[in-house]
Amino acid sequence: xxxxxxxxxxxxxxxxxxxxxxxxxxxxxxxxxxxxxxxxxxxxxxxxxxxxxxxxxxxxxxxxxxxxxxxxxxxxxxxxxxxxxxxxxxxxxxxxxxxxxxxxxxxxxxxxxxxxxxxxxxxxxxxxxxxxxxxxxxxxxxxxxxxxxxxxxxxxxxxxxxxxxxxxxxxxxxxxxxxxxxxxxxxxxxxxxxxxxxxxxxxxxxxxxxxxxxxxxxxxxxxxxxxxxxxxxxxxxxxxxxxxxxxxxxxxxxxxxxxxxxxxxxxxxxxxxxxxxxxxxxxxxxxxxxxxxxxxxxxxxxxxxxxxxxxxxxxxxxxxxxxxxxxxxxxxxxxxxxxxxxxxxxxxxxxxxxxxxxxxxxxxxxxxxxxxxxxxxxxxxxxxxxxxxxxxxxxxxxxxxxxxxxxxxxxxxxxxxxxxxxxxxxxxxxxxxxxxxxxxxxxxxxxxxxxxxxxxxxxxxxxxxxxxxxxxxxxxxxxxxxxxxxxxxxxxxxxxxxxxxxxxxxxxxxxxxx
Length: 514
Description:
The chain is 63% helix and 10% strand.
C-alpha cells in the first residue's frame, strides 16, 4: 500500500473513530434501508453484546461462573439496560465499548499481548467519542484499570507499550482539536454544574441578600463556592431510592414512569453486595468498585441530577454488586438455615417478590408505556409524515404550526427526503443555541395567522386542537393511542378511556381539486 493510501486510510479511520455511532448507524441503514429498525439496531446489538461481555469480564476478574452468570442475567433483564438498548442511545454503545476496553486491557496485561492492548485503547477511544459524558468517563476508567494492573503493565515490553501509546495518542488527536474549539468547550460546559443555568440560581439568591455586606456575599456566594456546594448537593441527590428503584426518570424517553431504572429487589441485594465487598476486601471486584465511584463522580458534575442517560454507566457496577448480594443471600439461606421449612418459606417468598417485580415491569413496559408516553415519543408523527407526503401535490404550501410538537426531521426520515435537496432548500433560524429549519420546499414551520393562512390559496395547516379557532372546519384528525384513566373521586373509582387528538389538519378556503 502506498504512502498516500496509508495516510488516507489513517485519516478515514480517525474520522470514523471521531463519530463512531453515526458511521455505524449509516452502515446499518445502507444494509437494511432507512427505517426505524436500522436506526435502532446498532444500539440493540451493543446492548445484546454487553450481556455476554459482562459475563466474560466478571469471570476474568473473579473466576466465578455463578457470579458471572447472574451478573449477565440481571443485566439482560434490568429496566435501565432494556430502555437504552431498544432505542438509539449513543451512551448505550459507549457503555459496551467501555466494557470491551476494560476486558481487553485486563486480558492484554495478563497475556502480555500488545495487539490486545492496542485494541483495548481503541475501544476506550471509541467510548470517549461516543457521548459527551464519556469524555470524562472513558479516561477515568482507563486510569482506574491502569492503577489496578500497573505491575502487570510495567512487566510488558517497553517497545510494545510505546507503540500502543503512540497509536492511542493518534486516535485522540481529533478529540483534542474538537474539544478545545469553541463548540467543543460549549458542548461540555452546557451539561455541567458550571453552566449558566446553575449560576443563575446563585445570582437570584444574592439579589435577595443584597443588604448584606459586599465582602460577605463575595466570600460565600462566589462561583467556586457555588460549584462546590452544588456538587455536594448532587452527590446527596444521587442516592435517591425513588429514582433508581421506584419511579425512574421523569423524562419519558428515559423511563416508563411507574417503575425504577432497577428492580426494587435489587436495593437490598446491592447493599449486601457492597457490604461484603468492603468487609471481605474482595480485590477481584475492585474494577467494579472504582467503576461505581468514577460514574458517581462524573454524574455529580452534571447540572441535572439524577439523570438516567448521564448516569447510565452506573448500571454495570450496580448489576454486579446486586448479583453478588443475591448469591450471598442465597448461600446464607440454603447452607446456614437448619430448618428446611423456614428455608423453603424464605426462598419462595424471595422468589415471589422477584418474580412480581420483573412481571410488573414487563407488563408496564409493553402494555402501559406505549400508550401513556405516546406524546413524548411522537408515535403519531410517522402517520402524519406519510400522509403529508401523500397529499403533497394538492397544496402550494403546507404550514406546520409551531405550537405542535412535530419535529421536521421525522418528516425527512420517513419520506426519505433527499439530503442534498433539503440542504439547498432549507432556511434556518436560531432557537437558543440550536439552528432549526423554518422552511424547505413547500413546507413551513411557524406561527399560524388563521385569517391570512386560511384565506390563501391551496394551503394545508397542521395544528393542535387548543390552537385552532372554534368552528374551524377540520379536514382530518390524528389521535394518540387510547389510554385509560382511573381516578378515585370521593371514595369511588372512576375509569374512562381518553382518545387524545395529536394533530388536526385544516385546509384554506380555496383548494383546487378539493
